[in-house]
Each structure stands twice: as C-alpha cells, then as structure tokens.
Amino acid sequence: MNTTDLETIPLNRPHLSASELAYLAEAVRGGSTSGDGPFTRRAAALLREMTGACHVLLTTSCTHALEMSAILLDLRPGDEVIMPSFTFMSTANAYALRGAVPMFVDCRPDTLNLDEKLVEAAITERTRAIVVVHYAGVACAMEALCAIAGRHGLALIEDNAHGLGGSYRGRPLGSFGGMAAQSFHVTKNVQCGEGGALLLNDTGLIADAEIIREKGTDRSRFFRGQVDKYRWVGIGSSYLPSDVLAAQLTSQLESFDGIQLRRHAVWRRYHEGLADWAARHGVSRPTVPDGCAHPAHLYYLLLPDLRNRQGLIAHLAARGVQAAFHYQPLHSAPAGTRYGRVAEGGCPVTEQVADRLVRLPLYADLSEAGLTRVINAVRTYEMS
Hints:
3-stranded antiparallel β-sheet, Aspartate Aminotransferase, domain 2, Aspartate Aminotransferase, domain 1, globular, alpha/beta, 8-stranded mixed β-sheet
C-alpha cells in the first residue's frame, strides 16, 4: 500500500473515557452548568487525592491558574521572577501581566528542565519567586530548588502542566511549591478541551485565592453561609470553569490509571524500539534521573542539528506521521526581549535544544499498528 493511502497518525488524539458522555449529559440535565457545581467538587477532590494538595481550585486554563498565582504573590512592577526560557509563553505572560520581569535562566542538557546550578546567580534584590516547569513531566531537581528558595525567602511555584502523575523521590509533582498550576488542555494526558487548576499547598493562600477566582468577591464564603451577602472585596477575574467541563474532567480523572497504563506502554516502546537507531545516529532520547517517575506526557528525540530535525519531520510527514518541534526560546522572542531579562551567560542550551527537538505521536489510543508505523518510519531516516 502506498503511504499516501494510509491514515495520518496525529501528534495527539484526545482519549474518550467510558463515562464521559454520560457525565456531560448529567451535568446538562441537572441544570447546574455554571461553576462550582457537583462535578467541580468531584474533580477537585480527585486532584487533591492525586497530588496531596491542601486545596484545589479548578480554572479555565493553566494560564489562568498561573495568572492567579501572580496576583496572590502581589507582584509589583519591576519585581523579578526566575523561570526557564525553555517553556510555553504562558509561564512568562502570567507574571509580565502584573508588571513583573521574567528572568530567563537556561535549561539542563539532560532533562531540559531549569538548571538548578544557575538559579542562585540569577537572584537579585528584586527577585520574588522561582517558577519551575517539569518538562515532559520529568521532575526538576526539587531538593536543590526548594533549598535555594528557602535560603532567599522566595516563593516557589510549579508549572505542572506536563506533570500530573509524576513524582520526585516518591512525592507527587505539584506538591512542592506553595502553588502549582495544572493544565487540562486537549493535548494533556487528561483533558476537558480547555481547563486547568490551581493547587494550593500553603493554607494561608486559600481565602485570597477564592476571592481572586470569583471576580474579586467573597461569593464562595456567601454560598458556604459564612457571610450574609457577597461583595467586591479585592481584585480578581472570572477564572471559574463551567461544571460541564468539570464533568468531562471528572470522567477523565477517574480513568487516569488506565490512560496512564497505555501511555507508558507507548513511551517504553519508543524508548526501546529507537535505542539502537538513536545510538548509531547521535540522537539523544529522554533522560529520566533516578528518583523521578514521569507520567509519559511526551516522547521526544534530540537530533544532531536543525537541518536533521527538519529533515526527520519532513520524512515522517511523507510517511503519514505527524511530528513537531516544541518550545522556542522565550528570552530571544520579541515579547521576551521587551518584558524580560536573560540571566548572565545567556541560554545557549535552550537555543540548541529548541533547534534539535522532535516530538513523536503519543496518546492513549495509539494502536499497536500505528506505533509500529511510527517506529519504522523513524528508523528509516538517515542523517544528512
């Protein structure tokens, strides 16, 4: 069969869990489709159990969860927030919106996470927080980063968009920082199309976080009977998702173990099936340090250079396999140069990685035949 006759294998395909449509219908029939309904409470309880968070607030996106963290930090113009340059722009946007300056630090060449050895040198008298991103769900060096934050009296925030189900030395990702942001975008392991959550591990933040999420009002206290009316008491916005989205998310979270079982099987097949090809061609595969358990969110390859990265993507596309590059450096992006600063020494690893990385299709419903097609297609690529 000609490869043009084969169905294209997409980079991602959202999984439909067993009870998803029934829960959506139940939410609509119940008439409680606005936020903080029964499914919102069920999803939040499941996330508390999975992450160990003190309190969970569902949000309309991970971006909005990060924005809430910036408001909770009471950032002022000129305050600095240390973060990796190798991340999605939402990580920086959330703090730049408050007038803070993203301080971009390079990533490690192995895990592609924020390089903990470079963080302390980037701290100034204006630094207020450190934001870590667990790339591909592989944990940052949290022991070292927590120690640095503690020594300097800085807030530590986890952008855990990739990391639900991952852990560091037996402790769930999302439980280390005072706050952590989760994503339930359609590309994530569990999803509701668009959605997120703010995990609060510092109980002192809960009351203010509820006000921020409810448009700056004490509406949550009103519905708990703690005040006789709700009023505008602070700044905030509308960060609360519909209970219809929460119904879909609840079903996905209840199916988490089964989803993860299949995703890990796909990840392992890539890792084993491409090992000899990668070694022959000088291609790096994902690194998972001892003590880190990852959630099989991404599988990527680091090609020797940009030319071969583009060559592999084109080679796979010609064989009906969708592959893609990933983050581009924030420190050199137009908005990055306008709103942020780069730590001394720059971000050379980030620049190299951004030019070399290829993501392969990874989703729970990728069939064995499809997985074999992807592996065989990669293995037929010869370096130029």
